[in-house]
Specification:
The complex is a heterodimer of chains A (509) and B (146). By secondary structure, chain A is α+β, with helices and mostly antiparallel strands. Chain A has a single domain, classed as tRNA-splicing ligase RtcB (Alpha-Beta Complex), CATH 3.90.1860.10. Chain A is 37% helix and 24% strand. Chain A is built from 17 helices and 19 strands. In chain A, the strands form four sheets. In chain A, strands 7, 8, 9, 11, 15, 16, 18 and 19 form an eight-stranded mixed β-sheet that branches. In chain A, strands 1-2-3-4-5-13-12 form a seven-stranded mixed β-sheet, sandwiched between helices. Chain A has a two-stranded antiparallel sheet with strand order 6-10. In chain A, strand 1 and strand 2 form a beta hairpin. In chain A, helix 6 packs across helix 12. The N terminus of chain A is likely disordered. Chain B has 146 residues and is an alpha+beta fold. Chain B has a domain of 96 residues: Archease domain (Archease, Possible Chaperone, Chain: A, domain 1, 3-Layer(bab) Sandwich), CATH 3.55.10.10. In chain B, the strands form two sheets. In chain B, strands 1, 2, 6, 7 and 8 form a five-stranded antiparallel β-sheet that branches. A three-stranded antiparallel β-sheet of chain B has the order 3-5-4, covered by helices on one side. In chain B, strand 7 and strand 8 form a beta hairpin. The radius of gyration of chain B is 14 Å and the shape is globular. The model of chain B has no long low-confidence stretch (mean pLDDT 93). The chains are: A alpha+beta (509), B alpha+beta (146). At the A-B interface, helix 1, strand 4, helix 9, helix 11 and helix 14 of A face helix 3 and strand 6 of B.
């Protein structure tokens, strides 16, 4: 390993000797391949690669365009070749290189003529974010932040190989796959009101247990209520700025208030379900004669048995993820109860909302003036439904769905609200985070976990992780600034900024 | 023992991990791909156990066989909580239009205290997947989701 790292270092030094020739040529190459439509909107024209059925559309500012890799454009274009795609293949301002779809990719496919592809969802099915409110203020929490972070780290299993505190039976596992957060609440992990404040009320109907392999079950069973590793986190935060006080008030947010953000997904169960179905869909593309430019875009006609098998299994993984975040919520409340010696009700620990950012869903959208059912794939994108939409919880129906955008470790996260514009422009979708700009390997060469930790502590942010390398590879510098990404979304009007929250205590796997 | 650079090398990728593995035979290339994959997660030189786990996979073609072999190792790592450092592909054969692999992975019980983890791999992707015959043997290229 060392030898290889040294070799890489040498390569980088060689590159440094040709000052910035590469980024410049990369930018001019990206720029020559896109057409500016408006301030934050760029078209990748049909013909960028052969067989595109619709254009690509990239939502970035001039500044963020500089960081877009040419291969990311190709990935957006690849999706535009798939059968039944509607309007255009999109990428949100946090777009970066993925596999299959670019990360930040959104595409909708006709219910009958279109396809369903695991490449448009990813391995971490229903990776998502939830935000828990509290009645605590910053000054109540700051004196206890080290203890609080430590207790959260101890009580919510995280990191590779961590095991759940729950010994789930097979029938409980079935129930979680079918009923998601509803199962968790019925099993005592949370309250009924939590469900009303989750996308899809915390679970999606239509999960097919028969399409979930024994392997996926085996991986999922011991991992309930585990955070995982990588970019997943649990964070104690403080609301530090309000942009739309009226909407913030409808969301129950005020300046100085403490919130908790949980970012995680469906763990091994989801990874295995995606792996299993990619295998069968890789064969299905041959059977149905669908030409695909990237094997990761394996897919099948939406109503074929292969596509529906994947969709039913994917729903099980999505439900597992909602159950997972619900269980973690319960333990988070227990930790707060212990540290602040008050019960969760007194602490006002209500769920604001829970959003999925890796999922495919059958939704109704207005396309060319007609209502149409489409499979919307969001891979690193958040649903952002407008005021008045029946899927927005009653409490927020006047102002729109809360859209939660996590920042990278040590940077601000944002709470936005959904808009009618998003329904016209982006199939009711907005960005999902900051978007990586530096590889993990590069980050580890550049930064030391201990150094980052000290730097964050100097800014008043406590970080607790299983290993310093996790901190290094998630250093704030490896992401685009989340403010930049959120501003593009806001300026485009596909979601509006409501509040900014800053981290005080972070736990990572 | 060939040098590591002859066994595998890492390529730059913004969000995921990408590597190429080499070998004189298909079997050796598959072994080196497994070694490269586990070294994304952990420094395998810190692992030495000899606990052997049998691995059998079958797939419709060789590229799929490579992905299935690596996916199976990830599955075994997670459910058996065993970290592997040495791989032996005993045989790759074609029968009735399908490819079969039988092999073994060697390692020891995963213990985060003594096996400091680098990066968890979520899954093996088909993105930019290559398996090609070269002048000196075979080349495999993979992107894994981390």
């Amino acid at each position: 390993m060392t030898e290889i790292l040294e070799k890489d270092n040498q390569k980088e030094k060689e590159l440094e000797n040709e000052p910035e020739s590469e980024p410049e040529s990369q930018l001019s190459s990206v720029r020559s391949q896109v057409r500016k439509l408006s301030e934050n909107s760029w078209e990748i024209p049909v013909g960028h690669i052969p067989d595109m059925k619709v254009p690509g559309r990239l939502f970035v500012s001039e500044k963020l365009l500089e960081g877009i890799e040419p291969e990311t454009l190709d990935q957006i274009a690849n999706v535009a070749t798939l059968p039944g795609i509607q309007k255009y293949s999109m990428a949100m301002p946090d777009a970066h290189l993925g596999y299959g779809f670019a990360i930040g990719g959104v595409a909708a496919f006709d219910r009958e003529e279109g396809i369903i592809s695991p490449g448009g969802v990813g391995f971490d099915i229903n990776c998502g974010v939830r935000l828990i409110k509290t009645k605590l203020q910053k000054e109540d929490v700051l004196p206890h932040i080290k203890l609080l972070t430590e207790e959260l780290f101890k009580n919510i299993p995280s990191g590779v190989g961590s095991k759940s505190r729950i010994r789930a039976s097979d029938s409980e596992l079935d129930d979680a796959f079918l009923h998601g957060a509803r199962w968790a609440v019925e099993a005592g992990y949370g309250v009924e009101a939590d469900l009303k404040h989750c996308e899809g009320n915390g679970f999606l109907e239509g999960g097919l247990l028969s399409e979930v392999s024994a392997k996926a079950r085996k991986r999922g069973k011991p991992q309930f209520g585990t955070l995982g590793s990588g970019n997943h986190f649990l964070e104690v935060q403080c609301v530090d700025e309000l942009y739309e006080p009226e909407v913030a008030s409808a969301f129950g947010l005020e300046e100085g208030q403490i919130t908790v953000m949980i970012h995680c997904g469906s763990r091994g169960a989801g990874h295995q379900i995606c792996t299993d179905h990619l295998r069968t869909l890789g064969q299905a593309v041959k059977k149905y004669g669908i030409p695909i430019p990237d094997k990761q875009l394996a897919c099948a006609p939406a109503q074929s048995k292969e596509a529906q098998a994947y969709f039913g299994a994917m729903l099980c993984a999505a439900n597992y993820a909602w159950a997972n975040r619900q269980v973690i919520t319960h333990w988070t409340r227990e930790v707060f109860e212990k540290v602040f010696k008050m019960d969760a009700d007194e602490l006002g620990m209500d769920l604001l909302y829970d959003v999925a950012h890796n999922v495919a869903k059958l939704e109704e959208h207005r396309i060319d003036g007609k209502k149409k059912e489409v499979y919307v794939h969001r891979k690193g994108a958040t649903r952002a439904f407008p005021p008045g939409h029946p899927e927005v919880p009653r409490a927020f129906r006047a102002v729109g769905q809360p859209v939660l955008i996590p920042g990278s470790m040590g940077t601000s996260s944002y709470i936005l609200c959904g808009t009618a514009t998003a329904m016209d422009v982006s199939f009711g979708s907005a960005c999902h985070g900051a978007g990586r700009v530096m590889s993990r390997a590069h980050a580890k060469k550049e930064f030391r976990g201990e150094g980052i930790k000290e730097r964050l502590e100097a800014k008043g942010i406590t970080v607790r992780a299983t290993h310093p390398s996790v901190i290094a590879e998630e250093a704030p510098e490896v992401y685009k600034p989340s403010s930049e990404v959120v501003n593009v979304v806001h300026e485009l009007g596909i979601a509006r900024k409501v509040a900014r929250v800053i981290p005080l205590g972070v736990t990572k796997g | 023992m060939p040098s590591k650079n002859e066994q595998y090398e890492y390529l730059e990728h913004t969000a995921d991990a990408k590597f190429r593995a080499y070998g004189k035979s298909l079997e050796e290339t598959f072994e080196n791909a497994a070694l490269a994959m586990f070294n994304v997660m952990i420094d395998t030189e810190k692992v030495s156990g000899e606990k052997a786990t049998k691995v059998r996979v079958s797939s419709p073609d060789l590229e799929n066989l490579l992905v299935d072999w690596l996916s199976e190792l990830l599955f075994l790592f997670e459910v058996e909580a065993t970290i592997f450092w040495k791989f032996k592909v005993l045989e790759i054969k074609k029968e009735e239009g399908k490819y079969f692999l039988s092999g073994q992975a060697f390692g020891e019980a995963f213990n985060p205290e003594i096996h400091p983890f680098e990066t968890e791999i979520k899954a093996v992707t088909y993105n930019q997947l290559l398996l090609e015959k070269t002048e000196n043997g075979w080349l495999a290229q993979l992107v894994v989701d981390i």
